[in-house]
Amino acid sequence: MKGKVEFRGKLFALASSRRESQISPRRKALLFAGFIVALSLVAKSPPSLRISPVPQFPELPVGHQSPLQAVSILNSGWGPVHIQEVRLTGDSPRDFRSLSERCADQLLLPGRSCTLALSFAPQSSGRRNAELSVISEGRVLPNYLPLIGVADQRSSLESCPAGIEFGNEAVGVASTWRQCKIRNLTEHALQISSPRITGDTPNDFQLGDNTCASRLPAGGSCSVSVRFIPRVSGERRAEVVFDDGSGDVPHGILVSGRGTAADLCMDPELVSFPGLPVGQLSQFESVLVRNCGSADVHIAEPTSGGNAAGDFILEATPCNSVMLAPGKSCSVTVRFRPMGVGARTATIILPDDSPDAPHIIHLQGTGDTKTQPSALITPETVSFGEQVIGRTSGPRRVVVLSQGKVPLEIGPVTFAGERLPQFVLETKCSNRVLGTKEQCEINVYFRPTDARKFEAEISIPHNAVDAPRSLIIEGVGLAPTGWCCLRGKVFQSKEFICVLQKGRYFQDQTAAEQACTSSPPPLQQTPLQPPTGLEPGTTAQADSQPISCDTLVLHWDSTAAPGGYFVQLKKLPNLAGTATVVFENRVFGNQLKPPSPLEVGTYEWTVASSRTSGERSGSAPLRYFKCNPHIKAPLAHLNWRAIAQRPIQ
User: Fold this and answer.
1) With b meaning 16 or more CB within 10 Å and e meaning fewer, what string describes 147-160?
2) Which of 50, 188, 207, 421 has the most CB atoms less than 10 A away?
């Protein structure tokens, strides 16, 4: 068959002198199969880069710089390539210079390219080798271009071959003056021209004192000063260029620096609350405040302002008097309680030391005269803590309370997403309507099947605007660590639980079974007594007083305890749930310093006496205490008076 098949991208054309009707069905099928194969080959074709041409640098004296030569990076594959970085590597990368960053952090589509400029500026004599390395996602090949240059020791001038690096400098702030000494290496005088600044960002550098704009005698020297004043943030590069009157290529001094600027980004910048009846309190809304600049930002105390500032409640925030390093963040939390009807607007003002301070978060909501349903769901998170594998926990109760004047409508209460068999849900809240002050309960049970953390979500759909519609439940499966003999029965248990239940704990099942079937311990053995005089703490949780826990030491009166004392320290949860164990182990002596600083919160602790055989007394009555929050020291490096006197735009 006379014809031509041409494939370009997604074009498949058949040019034939015959009419389509004259092509047999068998040939049509073969052509279609070839087209599909070609498409599959294109789809599987890996991305590819073509870096060209290879620069041909002239032989130069040490200290000179060649003219710039353009190098192109082409995406010659069938898929996009993300170039992350282009840098000089190899044996002598400092002898070559890349004066453009146009290819860095670029997404090259198929057939597209980017261009950069290279020059040869030898600092030592001889053959100089380096590579232009292209770093991309997936390490697309080829990823480097060889660079070769030859340097001659002969040079007319010596002028800071390493260049001048200013480092980081704040935007708009001038650096100190840096000086470069230029020396005549020839045996005759040279006429030095006035230096000038060229390159990528010449306006970010400024020339100062110059003693080189004259005739320089043989062996003589002069100097030129330059400073860095970045206009914007990021890498800034330029070159101080001058001639020596010999007609050779100009001499150059590479100058570089990095502009830094502090900045804050808010997500979101506008917080919109749903309409609420006057006096009703909304749920929390949070704003993430992130340092999106390249320098530290110091934030003073956030304040509220605007027409209806009193309608928005600013909660305690970690953004109060804090320093954020680049990339770090804190959050601001606010609630809405309209005090009037109609649109309500306000702002949160963040005083900071960035160039465009202060930063503003806008707030808006609507006060409504129409009464809406209101609900209170407690707790919002259910934690079972640690539970022995195969044993079912007691119920954790969640209460749904209707606290508005309009009936609360509740939909089907179920597990959201995948249901885990380790959790069991019992409730009479599904598909109910609750009147004012009516409530219903949700009971959840936990029975772990293996030693790991389990987490699920319960969906509670309702028509209120001030309560969450789901809650998280979590628990940790704990492998049994031993066996407990209690009232003639043997079962798997944690050691401390067994002792608290007046049982005897054994690591070995056989030993526990023998102990339970044998006669009780001899009567003449003196029973162990729990220690007394536990300090600090009170016997009632409601009477616990805040104390400083930085240097906390738990202590008690000594008693007969041949095997030491078994101490348990727990942190109580804020909501209903299982306490968190901070310390649970045997100690020798009548005091204990916690192994790590205690967090803010309420704690309970107790202690039991122990024999060398492992038997323990009953536990002493629980003691309760509260840890005070740590007081942060003020930021000495932030001029708060200057911030307070700065006018707010």
Assistant:
1) bebebeeebbbbbb
2) 207
